[in-house]
Amino acid sequence: MKTVRKSLQMDDPVEAVIVLVDLIVGHGRHVVGVVVVVVVLAVAEVVIVVHVVAVVILVIIVVVVVVVEVVVAVVVVVVVVVVDVVVVVVAAVVVVVVAAVVVVVVIVVVVVVAVVIVVVEVVAVVRRFLKELVILHCVSNRGRKLAIVIVVVVVVVVVVVVVVVVVVVAIIVVATVVIKEEM
User: Which keywords does the record carry (predicted)?
Assistant: First the structure.
């Protein structure tokens, strides 16, 4: 400091510059050392910050991956359970519907066979009755027509009654089968 003061108090500017240059060159190595230390510390600080940021980014990536894996696992489990339930319900419904359809088909076949048998028997009876009417010449034309109408009405009533009874029985049987299947 004394040198600096001394150089500033000199009357000759050239001599003052020489003293200042000597001061800088003489103590310059200390300045360079301080600059190097400051630069190294700054670089070390940047490296530490970069490492911390990298670690934080890695932690975020790990957390995101774990969360995504958990969400995917939950979604897969839910989808599998829902699909299993849907398959079981659909299979149960299909079994019940197929059983009901089979029962209805069997009942319809039985009804058709019964109706055919009744119709064949009624036609046979009507033919015999008409033959007897033809044999009886004493019955007038109007009487024959009335007898035919009566026979046709009786046949229709018998067929309707048989069909209604068979349909009621079929409904009862189907309802019983469906109720038993659902239990």
Answer: Membrane, Transmembrane, Transmembrane helix
